């Protein structure tokens, strides 16, 4: 009886439809008939269920082809779940950096054109870095921001930089409202810094984000081999300035360990 109740529930049936839309065949969307065929359900029931899921933002429907795809809310939920898992998994690794360097450490991601901190581990200094969870900052003058951009191709970086500067022909819709303000770094300078990150595996900043503050960051890779986060260490220049390269190498080592825990290839 328990199994019958489980498989008879509307929620489970709706999840089955979402799984169908996640199949490789559904990359360009699927019509109601094909979804019904793949799920083994009645076409009329599938049509009603997909309409309900579309109203909730869990699927989207192309106005021209009438094909269904996973919706914006589904991606938002998946992103939130992934980031929650990442922050929890990375916590003990971040604490090893604090124990080694005795400096505040952050785990950062890129959202809508800004760098956000998922988790902070604070050092024991009387004067220490603050926790930055939920606060968005400029990626151009921060080491985690540059690390998170470092895997992008030249065309994407250029388009994104010009959009930030407000000079793109078609600005990207998910960027913050900084149009018209020139970025604090030229496109050539940014390209050079991204190339440096790819070569040595970490980035440093020296009072670029804030006077008296220095930092290092290294990339964390997910199971697909793409950069999903950046490990960051920041501190006053008087304490960390002379140790930046060593701190960068250690941050890279710890970031690699987090990547391995996430199942990153290589």
TrEMBL record:
The keyword Oxidoreductase is assigned to this record: no
- Gene3D superfamilies annotated for this entry? 3.30.450.40, Winged helix-like DNA-binding domain superfamily/Winged helix DNA-binding domain (1.10.10.10)
* PANTHER family xref list: HELIX-TURN-HELIX TRANSCRIPTIONAL REGULATOR, ICLR FAMILY, HTH-TYPE TRANSCRIPTIONAL REGULATOR RV1719
Residues in HTH iclR-type domain copies: 8-72
Keyword annotations of the record: DNA-binding, Transcription, Transcription regulation
Highest taxon above the source species = Bacteria
Instruction: State what protein this is by name.
Output: IclR family transcriptional regulator
Q: Which InterPro entries match?
A: GAF-like_dom_sf, HTH_MetabolicPath_Reg, Tscrpt_reg_IclR_C, Tscrpt_reg_IclR_N, WH-like_DNA-bd_sf, WH_DNA-bd_sf
List each copy of the IclR-ED domain by range: 73-264
């Amino acid at each position: 009886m328990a199994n019958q109740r489980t498989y008879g529930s509307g929620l489970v049936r709706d999840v089955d439809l979402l799984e169908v839309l996640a199949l490789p065949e559904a990359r360009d969307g699927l019509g109601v008939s094909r979804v019904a065929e793949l799920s083994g359900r009645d076409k009329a029931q599938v049509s009603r269920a997909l309409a309900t899921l579309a109203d909730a933002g869990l699927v989207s429907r192309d106005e021209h082809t009438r094909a269904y795809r996973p919706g914006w809310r589904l991606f938002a939920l998946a992103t939130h779940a992934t980031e929650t898992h990442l922050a929890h998994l990375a916590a003990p690794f971040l604490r090893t950096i604090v124990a080694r360097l005795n400096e505040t450490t952050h785990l950062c991601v890129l959202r809508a054109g800004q760098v956000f901190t998922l988790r902070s581990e604070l050092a024991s200094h009387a004067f220490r870095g603050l926790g930055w969870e939920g606060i968005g900052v400029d990626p151009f003058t921060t080491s985690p921001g540059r690390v998170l951009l470092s895997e992008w191709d030249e065309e994407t970086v250029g388009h994104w930089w010009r959009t930030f500067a407000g000079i793109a022909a078609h600005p990207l819709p998910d960027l913050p409202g900084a149009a018209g303000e020139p970025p604090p770094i030229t496109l050539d300078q940014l390209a050079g810094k991204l190339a440096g990150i790819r070569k040595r595996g970490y980035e440093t900043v020296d009072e670029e984000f804030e006077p008296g503050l220095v930092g290092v960051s290294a990339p964390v890779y997910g199971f697909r081999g793409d950069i999903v986060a950046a490990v960051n260490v920041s501190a006053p220049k008087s304490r960390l300035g002379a140790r930046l390269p060593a701190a960068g190498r250690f941050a890279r080592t710890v970031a690699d360990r987090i990547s391995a825990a996430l199942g990153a290839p290589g």
